[in-house]
Here is the input.
Amino acid sequence: MERRDIVRWLREDRPETLQVLWETADSARTVEVGDAVHLRGLVEISNHCRRSCLYCGLRRENSRLTRYRMSEQEILACALQAEELGYGTVVLQSGEDLWFDEGRVASLIRKIKERTSLAVTLSLGERRPEEYALWRAAGADRYLLRFETSRRDLFEHIHPPLERGAAGRLSLLRLLRRLGYEIGGGVMVGIPGQTVEDLAEDILTFSRLEPDMIGVGPYIPHPGTPLASEPGAATDQAPATELMTCKMVALARLVCPRANIPATTALATLNREEGRELALARGANVVMPNLTPARYRALYDIYPNKACVGETAEICFTCLKGRLESIGRYVGVGRGDSPGYRMKNALTFSAQER
Here is the structure.
């Protein structure tokens, strides 16, 4: 897809014209990944973070936040619950908390693999290559590392100097791919100062990187962060709206048709009635229900008023199953590896046999 076409769709606001985009993306999703919606059980294992990102409520300077770390027993209990509910994947996510070092995380991965048949996805931020390699050897299957925006100066503005920069995160994703992980990248929509042209470059970055997973969510201001008080750009601002987020989901599906794309919790936060359903009808095929114990959920305060914080894991599963059935979709069975990843692995195996 050419940049000019991407920009044209991002600027389009006529419902009858956008319907073409929705239907095209949904058709690509049907053909490439099918009607199953894979559920990934999310466990937010720690809200400690060494970073000072300008948009995130977990930033280390947030002294008002009560910090927590889940115990190994608590995390394993969540993984067992994920399998009991029929999920194929458990996602271990945290702030960039170095207390969860290479040994602790490797031990967790091994114990989850010993006791369940789940795929293990990690979302633990930027780490040393040796840590990624050890976790992969321990059995980790996937790694999520969002680059948030591909525009370098904007990335550097919203992240402190400790960060590698967007280019650095993209290089880490390529490293993770070489280690054998399914890789996941993603962006925020509507960061103050972000333009439609920036979002078009994000879509082109997805096209070049070909990630196995793509996360797209709206920027939701957190009142306790510096970015919340910043004004948007005067012209061509990319709004943090449900509509713009859905355009990005649809375009991501078209440039990476075999990727797994979640209907994000952030989008459901903007539109609790049908945010997830709209994304699923416009290219998404994954949902990440929360398995974090109730006493910790509200403390994982990346942005305010997060959807589904008060639901138990069982209620959340029942609700999602009913919502999926209402739009003609169903809960997927098994790990739900991306077709793109399976295809790359098959080609690699074939080449090695030759």
Q: What stands out?
A: The chain has 14 helices and eight strands.
